[in-house]
């Protein structure tokens, strides 16, 4: 392969390496950013839900209790009573899920659900619930410090974050009310039907349920992919332009001079051949002269003197020619060496 081919191959390899590597890095950092951000939003949503319920329970329900009423599961039929905290959360969640057109959704979930729609329903529910239970088994006892359980998965061709945050018996009323419900024959029957051991009794800070948040990440992923494509395309254009400019400089200032120096070398060898030829001629004329001298010594003839003069002329001509070739050779050498000096930057 010629020097041009090698350069082109080297640059193509370099180009592929850089573009491929950039694509990989951008893709990876986009994925990390999107997942981190989705998780952060899920954290924000679940914290907001828990804070809403804490204030609803501690300030609103408590106030009504002091005034003589409170919250009740059947508040609609009872004058002066309002929704239970869990019902309040479900109402807000239903409104949110209906209003925000797929931005996010959340639900309350529990293995010991009192509302039929809030039990463990799909494989994520069972998997994440096991994750929370495992934390409780391994000694998780305070209300803080629970690790959220999550996964990124595909649901109906949509990439989503599925997220579970523990909802624990953070106050005595949670324990008393839910423990009482678990003794109710209807609830016991519901547990048996669901294959769950009936009669569950909680202590403070134990796991009661979970807030399940779901956040689709399709749109933001598509946007990130657009950004990635624009960046990679710009990189490709920049590199092609840069490489083309570099190629031109390399061809003009290195490859072309080297190639013409090669031509110089060929003409050097031709010129050296001519010098050798002239020297041979000189040698031949010198030989002939010796013969004529010898003839002149024996014959003392005039003709030989004339021939001698002719010979001397021919010798002089050959010598002149040889000198001219040598001069040309010297000039070519000077030219080539100045060209080489230019390539390596010795001379301007
Ligand atoms: C006065 C009784 C009462 C109190 C107090 C109470 N709950 Fe509930 N809880 C219920 C009822 C009833 C439901 C079912 C509501 C519905 O139909 O949506 C429920 C629902 C839930 C759910 C959803 C799963 C399910 O059972 O449907 C969770 C989780 C939950 N409660 C946790 C708590 C926590 C934590 C506390 C304390 C901060 C608490 N509850 C306080 C009665 C109570």
* Strand percent estimate: 5-15%
Number of helices: 7
Low-confidence sequence ranges: none
- CA distance, first residue to last residue: 31 Å
Average residue-wise pLDDT: 88
What is the number of independent domains? 2
Number of strands: 6
What is the overall silhouette? rod-shaped
Provide the gyration radius in Å: 49 Å
Task: List bound small molecules.
Answer: heme C
Helix content: 55-70%
The ordered string of helix (H) and strand (E) elements is HEEHEHEEHHEHH
Strand arrangement within the widest β-sheet reads 3-6-5-4
Query: What structural class should be given to the helix and strand makeup?
Result: alpha+beta
Largest sheet: 4 strands, antiparallel
Describe this entry's structure for a reader.
- There is one protein chain.
- By secondary structure, the protein is an alpha+beta fold.
- The chain folds into two domains: about 5-215, no CATH class; about 260-345.
- Helices cover about 70% and strands about 10% of the residues.
- The chain contains seven helices and six strands.
- The chain has helices spanning about 5-65, 85-100, 125-135, 170-185, 185-195, 220-300, 300-345; strands spanning about 70, 80, 105-110, 150-155, 160-170, 205-215.
- The strands form two sheets. Strands 3-6-5-4 form a four-stranded antiparallel sheet, with helices on both faces. A two-stranded parallel sheet has the order 1-2.
- A hairpin with a 2-residue loop joins strand 4 and strand 5 (about 160-170).
- The radius of gyration is 49 Å and the shape is rod-shaped.
- It starts with a helix and ends in a 5-residue tail after the last helix.
- The model has no long low-confidence stretch (mean pLDDT about 90).
- It binds heme C.
- Heme C binds near residues 57, 113, 170 and 208.
- The site of heme C (HEC) has 23 residues, from helix 2, helix 4 and strand 6.
């Amino acid at each position: 392969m010629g020097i041009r081919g090698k350069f082109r191959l080297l640059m193509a390899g370099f180009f592929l390496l850089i573009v491929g590597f950039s694509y990989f890095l951008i893709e990876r950092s986009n994925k990390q950013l999107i997942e981190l951000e989705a998780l952060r939003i899920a954290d924000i949503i679940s914290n907001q839900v828990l804070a809403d319920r804490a204030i609803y329970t501690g300030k609103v329900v408590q106030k009504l209790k002091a005034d003589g009423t409170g919250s009740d599961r059947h508040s609609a039929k009872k004058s002066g009573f309002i929704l239970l905290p869990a019902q309040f959360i479900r109402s807000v969640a239903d409104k949110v899920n209906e209003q925000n057109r797929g931005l996010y959704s959340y639900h309350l979930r529990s293995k010991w659900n009192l509302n039929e729609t809030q039990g463990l329903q799909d494989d994520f529910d069972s998997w994440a619930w096991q994750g929370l239970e495992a934390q409780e088994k391994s000694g998780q006892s305070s209300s803080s410090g629970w690790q959220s359980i999550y996964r990124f998965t595909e649901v109906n061709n949509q990439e989503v974050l599925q997220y579970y945050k523990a909802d624990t018996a953070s106050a005595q009323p949670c324990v008393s009310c839910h423990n009482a419900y678990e003794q109710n024959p209807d609830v016991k029957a519901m547990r048996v039907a669901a294959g769950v051991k009936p009669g569950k009794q909680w202590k403070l800070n134990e796991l009661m349920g979970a807030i399940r948040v779901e956040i689709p990440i399709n749109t933001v992923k598509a946007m990130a992919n657009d950004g990635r494509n624009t960046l990679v395309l710009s990189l490709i254009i920049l590199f092609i332009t840069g490489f083309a400019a570099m190629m031109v400089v390399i061809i003009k200032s290195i490859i072309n001079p080297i190639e013409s120096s090669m031509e110089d070398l060929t003409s050097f060898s031709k010129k050296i051949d001519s010098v050798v030829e002239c020297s041979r001629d000189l040698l031949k004329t010198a030989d002939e002269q010796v013969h004529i001298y010898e003839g002149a010594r024996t014959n003392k003839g005039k003709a030989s003197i004339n021939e001698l003069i002719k010979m001397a002329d021919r010798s002089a001509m050959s010598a002149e020619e040889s000198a001219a070739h040598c001069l040309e050779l010297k000039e070519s050498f000077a030219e080539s060496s100045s060209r080489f000096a230019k390539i390596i930057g010795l001379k301007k």
